[in-house]
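[agent] plan:
  1. take the single chain provided in the ticket
  2. run structure prediction with default settings
  3. attach structure tokens to the ticket
  4. add a short note for the reviewer (M.T.)
[agent] executing step 1
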Amino acid sequence: MNLTIKSPELIRAVVDLNPPLRKSQGSSETGFQDALVQALSSTSNLQKESGRLTTAFTLENPTVSLEQTMLAGVKSNVAFQATLQVRNRVVQAYTDVMNMQV
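[agent] step 2 finished; step 3 output follows
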């Protein structure tokens, strides 16, 4: 069994499996700022939903279960922690850039 593959053939095979991503004609370009705003909005919405469910459960609303409330709280906490880590990394990167010698 001879399994030798020349490098151009290998590269061509890999490119055919994973074509490069191209911008579609109708899509708009999004940057880091847009992604950050969307993440903050999503985190805020999860926290509001968690607060709403917690209040409803505390007031013994029969349509809200403990499982629903706990799951919303965990989702909200994970989103907040992720947002906090991104903020910490951005602040650290900013500090590193400001401390660079020119």
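[agent] step 4 note for reviewer: The chain has a mean pLDDT of 81.
[agent] ticket updated
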